[in-house]
Specification:
CATH superfamily of the domain at 62-196 in chain A: Tetracycline Repressor, domain 2
Number of strands of chain A: 0
CATH architecture of the domain at 62-196 in chain A: Orthogonal Bundle
Helix content of chain A: 55-70%
Order of helices and strands of chain A: HHHHHHHHH
Largest sheet of chain A: none
CATH class of the domain at 62-196 in chain A: Mainly Alpha
Oligomer: homodimer
Shape of chain A: elongated
Structural class of chain A: mainly alpha
Radius of gyration of chain A: 18 Å
CATH topology of the domain at 62-196 in chain A: Tetracycline Repressor, domain 2
């Protein structure tokens, strides 16, 4: 059980210390440019000590990408459920969830978008499956909105992907203390996302 | 002088062979994960032979990112000029230019979006300046469209950035031979982009 609205709350670290160390190294130098020794050093561990937590650099990358996508899916699913049945409300909720995740998990989002290439094939397939599940959640909402006559786009699946892309892209430029705080960002991007699906005016 | 519409034409390679070799290695392994020896091998050169062309791996990365952004700016400027004065026409032309570039220069776009971190500070500043110039081109168009009453968005600069993001994002999933050929992609994304700025219906 989780409290209503808890999908909006981001507190503390996303990961245990070892994965946080791996994440920062991957952000700075890329997966292939990062040695296990470098990660151990950032985590304040010896190399054998690091291997006690994760058997390989690949396992650390998988730990980051798979738990990030699981978290995003979980938050977005709860956002959609709490929004009730109306497509416009579900759309706003999932867009907000995508935005908040990419505001608060910027480094994770960068590694997910840049290092899919570095996942072993089976892990890559699993990751793409999670990513597709997230996209299909929004796809269904946009299709429902078109069916209900509240979204006017002639290209619902392309619009759904474009909305995801603009929300994910926030991770590349958003900085705390900048022009928009997270609530203002959500207001602005909700309007842009509604425009992209050609939503009719809300009552 | 260039012929009208030539900003739409992509023929041949974007780069000389050495930069093409560096690009493919950076795409596969990242900048920090790529050795000069690896690039030389892909280019069919010895390491000293490679250094005859470029003095460092950094110079190769700069060669890729700076010429890519210069090409994008040049094509987009010509697209806007040829479109005439109407903001809606200029908007469609620059959106088309962004889309075609990111369809035809997918690998370059990936390296530009992932390896800004790997540019030396002065080079990074120069790159960000080019990228900002591209963004300001679209910003001016969207602001002109709002002034002219043809775009209804209350957030023109955010809308302009979101449109750029959705066009740039095409590079991450577009594949030749897929559901949309470049012309169809331009049709679909032009509609999505107009929705994002809340363009009034075209006559």
């Amino acid at each position: 059980m989780t409290a209503d609205g808890s999908w909006r709350t981001y507190e503390g670290e996303a990961f245990p210390p070892v994965l946080t160390a791996a994440l920062s190294a991957f952000v700075d130098q890329g997966y292939h440019g990062t040695s296990v020794r470098e990660i151990a050093s950032r985590a304040g561990l010896s190399v054998p000590g690091l291997y006690h937590h994760y058997p390989s650099k690949q396992a650390m990358l998988v730990g980051i990408t798979s738990s990030a996508m699981a978290e995003l899916l979980d938050r977005s699913s709860r956002a959609e459920s709490e929004a009730g049945p109306a497509p416009a409300d579900r759309f706003d909720a999932v867009v907000e969830s995508l935005l908040l995740f990419h505001v608060h998990r910027r480094d994770v989002a960068f590694v997910c978008s840049t290092e899919i290439r570095s996942l072993d094939p089976a892990e890559r397939e699993a990751y793409v499956g999670q990513r597709d599940a997230q996209q299909r959640m929004l796809d269904r909402i946009v299709l429902d909105g078109v069916d209900a006559g509240v979204f006017g786009t002639a290209h619902p699946l392309d619009a759904s992907r474009a909305v995801t892309t603009m929300c994910v892209g926030v991770a590349t430029w958003y900085r705390p203390g900048g022009r928009l705080d997270p609530a203002a960002l959500v207001d602005v991007y909700s309007e842009l996302a509604r425009g992209t699906v050609q939503a009719t005016a809300r009552p």
